[in-house]
Amino acid sequence: MSQTIKNWGFEALRFLHLEKPALAILKKITARYEYPYLKGVSFRGDTLFDIIRPNLKSGDNFLDIICGYSPLAGPLLKSGYQITGFDDNRQAIKDLRKIYPDGKWILSSYENLKVQSDVDRGFSVFLLLGAFELCCQLSFLDLMGKLLDVNKPRVFFLETNRSIEKAPSMASPFVEESAAMRSIHLKGYNAMLELLTSHGYEVTDVGQYDAQFKEKWATVRIYAILTAKN
After folding, report:
1. Which whole-number Å values give the CA distances from 10 to 67, 108, 163, in the listed order?
2. What are the boundaries of each domain within the chain?
3. Do 155 and 126 contact (CB within 8 A), yes or no?
4. Cα 17 to chain centroid, rounded
C-alpha cells in the first residue's frame, strides 16, 4: 500500500468530517503492514547516530517508541549504550531479539504498554522515528505525557519522512499548517512538537537527510532534537 493511497483515503474521510473514524480505519489497515523499506537500517541508523551523537552522554539509556526495526539499535549498542524498544509488529520484535539480544524488545501496542513495569524509570533519551500518524490520537499523546512525566528524559529525537517542499528550520521548526493538513504524519509531527514544548522541551536542532530508500516518497526525511530546559 503506498503512502499516497493512504493519504488520499484519509483526506477523503476528513472531507466528510469523519477524521476520527478515519484514524481508526487507517490503524486497522496498517496494523500488520510490515513497511519493508524500513528493514534496511544500516545507512539510516549510522546517519541518525551521527546526528544525535553530540547530544549524548556516557551511560545514556534509550527508549525507542514504536521501534519498528530500530535503526539506531546497532550503532547505540555497539557504542555501549542501552536501548529498550516496543512495537506491536511481531516480526520486527522477533528480528530485533535475534539480531540485538543485548537490547530489550517488548512486543506490545502502545495501548497495552504498562508504563511502570514494561518501561520503568531511567530513560534519558527518547526516540520516535516515524509512526507520527499515532500522534493524531489523544490516547497516544496521553501515553507520551505519562512516559515523559515518569522518565523526564534529557533528549527527545524525532524523525519522519518529509513529503513537503519546504523543510522545517530552527527559525520555524513546525511544519506549515497547510502542509500538515495534507499529510496525517506531518500533522502528528506538529502535535508531538506541541506536546514536548508544553512539557518544558526546546528545539535545539532541526534538519533533513536522504535515507537512501528506493521508495522516493519516504527517502528524504526530517528530524528534530529537543532537550529539556534547565
Report:
1. 24, 25, 16
2. 1-33, 38-228
3. yes
4. 27
Burial letters 142-179, b for 16+ CB under 10 A, else e: ebbeebbeebebbbbbbbbbbbbeeebeeeebbbeeeb
Q: Given this model, what pLDDT does residue 164 score?
A: 87
- Inform me whether the pLDDT recorded for 97 exceeds 70: yes
Candidates 3.40.630.30, 3.50.30.10, 3.40.50.150, 3.30.530.20; CATH matching 38-228: 3.40.50.150
Question: Considering the entire predicted model, what is its pTM?
Answer: 0.85
Read off the amino acid at residue 25.
I
pLDDT (tens digit, 9 = 90+) per residue, 10-58?
444 444 444 555 555 555 544 444 556 566 668 999 999 999 999 999 9
For residue 146 the three cell numbers come to: 505519562
Q: Give exposure, 93-126, as e/b (b: 16+ Cβ within 10 Å).
A: beebeeebeebbbbeeebeebeeeeebeeebbbb
Residue 6 has pLDDT above 50, yes or no: no
What angle is formed at CA 209 by the lines to CA 136 and CA 82, rounded to 5 degrees?
70
